Amino acid sequence: MAVTPRLDPQRIVIAITGASGAVYGIRALHMLRANPGVETHLVVTRAGRATISYETDHSLAEVKALADHVHSDQDLGAAISSGSFITTGMLIAPCSVKTLSGIANSYDETLTVRAADVTLKERRRLVLLLRETPLHAGHLRLMSEVTASGAIVLPPVPAFYTRPKSIDDIVDHSVGRALDLLGFSPDDLPRWTEERSPR
Ligand SMILES: Cc1cc2nc3c(=O)[nH]c(=O)nc-3n(C[C@H](O)[C@H](O)[C@H](O)COP(=O)(O)O)c2cc1C
User: Does the structure show a pLDDT above 60 at 113?
Assistant: First the structure.
């Protein structure tokens, strides 16, 4: 039996849930769209649809148009619900506590949680831009549990060493760090260098 390289183009799953910060998922789609070697699979939860409308000027249709493939969160038969459908990984941006809890408990009732669970069981990268504050012990326990299962919890905490000039700068840096962790390094991601450190 002949073998062929697993992924060409690279596939990445993006989920937008109902935590504040729909713009993070939208920016990720914009950045990945610029690369023809990347195939994006988008899921937007019901609450995610609401936050897109509350927080941004984008229609749901415009957000969907940024992705190569769009799946319903209710479609548990979608390709991304199976480990045999090869992907590079999954980014949930933003990630709500509810979705975090679903992932921690493998409560695979929605496509978003199922696809995340599959990503972990196949030992692929799962990055969660978890957005909640302040955090109680139960939130921290859930973060610890998904980390033990292999997920990367990346709260979108701004970095100020990059001297951001706008909210876009702050958002792009958080999304860039997330994509970095998934192996898609943005060319213009500001990085700390020794030259910037005070003498
Ligand atoms: C405007 C708005 C902002 C919200 N922000 C957050 C948030 O930052 N973090 C969070 O965990 N939930 C937040 N929620 C609550 C979630 O939307 C809610 O828990 C929802 O059930 C999450 O479902 P999902 O994970 O399936 O998208 C927010 C809700 C609204 C309406």
Answer: yes
Distance CA 147, CA 156 (A): 16
User: CA nearest 190: which of 180, 21, 199, 198?
Assistant: 180
Which residue's CA is the closest to the ligand 1 atom numbered 13?
19
Examine residue 164 and say whether the peptide bond preceding it is cis (omega within 30 degrees of 0).
no
Q: Where are the domains of the chain?
A: 10-134+146-156
Cα–Cα nearest to 117, from 129, 133, 105? 105
Residue 149, pLDDT above cutoff 80? yes
CB 102 within 8 A of CB 109: yes
Q: Which residues contact 121 (CB under 8 A, 6 or more apart)?
A: 83
pLDDT in tens, 55-94: 999 999 999 999 999 999 999 999 999 999 999 999 999 9
Q: How far apart are CA 58 and CA 147, in angstroms?
A: 32
Class level of CATH domain 10-134+146-156: alpha beta
The residue whose CB lies within 8 Å of the most ligand 1 atoms, and thus the one to mutate among 43, 56, 96, is: 96
Length of the chain: 199
Structure confidence at residue 35 (pLDDT): 86
Ligand 1 centroid to residue 179 C-alpha, Å:
23
